UniProtKB/TrEMBL annotation:
SUPFAM superfamilies: Composite domain of metallo-dependent hydrolases, Metallo-dependent hydrolases. InterPro entries: Amidohydro-rel (IPR006680), Deaminase_MtaD/DadD (IPR023512), Metal-dep_hydrolase_composite (IPR011059), Metal_Hydrolase (IPR032466), MTA/SAH_deaminase (IPR050287). Its EC number is 3.5.4.28, 3.5.4.31. Its cofactor is Zn(2+). Catalyzes the deamination of 5-methylthioadenosine and S-adenosyl-L-homocysteine into 5-methylthioinosine and S-inosyl-L-homocysteine, respectively. Is also able to deaminate adenosine. This is 5-methylthioadenosine/S-adenosylhomocysteine deaminase. It catalyses: S-methyl-5'-thioadenosine + H2O + H(+) = S-methyl-5'-thioinosine + NH4(+); S-adenosyl-L-homocysteine + H2O + H(+) = S-inosyl-L-homocysteine + NH4(+). PANTHER family: AMIDOHYDROLASE-RELATED DOMAIN-CONTAINING PROTEIN (PTHR43794:SF11), AMINOHYDROLASE SSNA-RELATED (PTHR43794). Belongs to the metallo-dependent hydrolases superfamily. MTA/SAH deaminase family. The keyword Signal does not apply.
Length: 415
């Protein structure tokens, strides 16, 4: 069974798009597929859906719970105490709310790091999105805890195979200040052995850098290079406080960096240097981070913030164009996660959305990509498709009232 989208605009031209199974089968004029479902695309444009490169989906339950705080204060005194009370059901309901929000804002794929792997996986499976879910690793340099976490990682890796192809497994060492050197070495060798990605926060705050220098005489990226941790399977969130030498090491090792402009600004973590990353050839994608430091999962907003922030810090309006922001939010994210989505082309995974060209925010309509980055909001998104399946049509997602009500109910139980 397929899906035929008729008379839709793609790259400024009207065309038809045929999806068969979970991939784009054909793109061209006057396609026929009598056996397929049909979508009228007149007045709409088809664009790739977003890939959120770094988030903690279930933190939707902590939206506006602890705002206007510095990162280490926020984590230690507010977030971690609350998270210690969360069970798998809480996390499932938080992840469902996140999936709903992502679908409604045009995201169909995300790279997640959170507790209770199965709670998140169940939500993603049911809601029809695509995700790379990492098994969290935090040991605070306690050997007993580290042994427990190694066991859990190996178990979850096996158990993750029960889910559909839309769910990938990665390792999730939280950061260098929460995971010991020996655990980082173990994580890297486990990931290399099994061909897995590693999702980690790196150089997010000045404190992280100062503590690392005080402890090992090296900055975080230099130290990670020394212990053999860096490589092309590392997806590093933030990478804000990095010298040119460290950026060179990231590029040389093929580390994928995820920029989270809203979270970086809200926590005043620091200024990401997009231009320096590009000069050195680092591959940069875009993420929202969790809902407690953002406070939403909207990649439209993230693209605009990334572009505006880069122009401001580099004092140059030509830095980080709308097209670059859009690529960071789509194809670059897919590449970092080694997924075959992020662009509309024959043979690629069928993840896409239809935007309503009659929406006032897209008028008069000189450049669709510029409009999506600088002007659009979620009201412009009509239809969202992931893996060839329609997840939203006419702006509606099945069961949305119940998802929101359940998340509200669960959030009140642990406060
Ligand atoms: C180990 S699960 C993820 C862990 O990370 C915490 N977290 C959320 N946002 C950030 C951030 O910007 N920097 C560091 N840690 C963050 C989250 O609360 C979970 O405990
Ligand atoms: Zn994070």
């Amino acid at each position: 069974m397929g899906l035929l989208i008729k008379n839709v605009e793609l790259d400024g031209k009207e065309t038809d798009v045929l999806i068969e199974g979970n991939r784009f089968k054909a793109i061209g004029a006057d396609l026929n597929a009598p056996e397929s479902d049909f979508l009228e695309g007149q007045g709409m444009a088809v664009v790739p859906t977003f890939v959120n490169g770094h988030t903690h989906a279930s933190m939707t339950l902590m939206r506006s719970y602890a705002d206007d705080l510095e990162l280490h204060d926020w984590l230690t005194n507010y977030i971690w105490p609350l998270e210690s009370k969360l069970g798998e059901e809480d996390i499932y309901h938080g992840a469902r709310l996140a999936c709903l929000e992502m679908i409604k804002s045009g995201t169909t794929c995300f790279n997640d790091m959170y507790w209770h792997f199965h709670g998140v996986a169940r939500a993603v499976e049911e809601m029809g999105l695509r995700a790379v879910l990492s098994s969290v690793f935090i040991d605070f340099s306690d050997e007993a805890k580290a042994a427990e976490q190694r066991e859990l990682t190996m178990r979850l890796f096996e158990e993750s195979k029960r889910y559909s192809d839309r769910i990938g497994f990665a390792l999730g060492p939280h950061a260098i200040y929460t995971v010991s050197e020996s655990s980082l070495r173990w994580i890297k060798s486990f990931a290399d052995e099994h061909g897995l990605l590693i999702h980690i926060h790196i150089s997010e705050t000045e404190k992280e850098v100062e503590d690392c220098v005080a402890l090992c005489g090296l900055r975080p990226v230099e130290w990670l290079q020394k212990i053999g941790f860096l490589g092309c399977n590392i997806v590093a969130a933030h990478a804000i406080h990095v010298t040119d030498k460290e950026i060179h090491l990231l590029a040389k090792n093929g580390v994928k960096v995820v920029h989270n402009p809203v979270s970086n600004m809200k926590l005043a973590s620091g200024s990401f240097s997009y231009a320096r990353m590009r000069e050195h050839g680092v591959e940069v994608s875009l993420g929202t981070d969790g809902c407690s430091s953002n406070n939403n999962l909207c990649m439209l907003e993230e693209m605009k913030m990334a572009a505006l922030h880069a122009k401001l810090v580099h004092n140059d309006p030509t830095v980080l164009s709308a097209r670059e922001a859009f690529n960071m939010a789509t194809l670059e994210g897919a590449k970092a996660l080694r997924l075959d989505c992020g662009e509309i082309a024959e043979g690629k995974l069928a993840d896409c959305m239809l935007v309503d060209l009659s929406n006032h925010r897209l008028a008069p309509g000189y450049q669709l990509i510029d409009d999506l980055v600088y002007s659009a909001d979620t009201s412009c998104i009509d239809t969202v498709i992931c893996d060839g399946r329609i997840l939203m049509q006419n702006g509606c997602v099945e069961g949305e009232e119940e998802i929101v009500a359940e998340a509200r109910r669960y959030a009140t139980t642990f406060q």
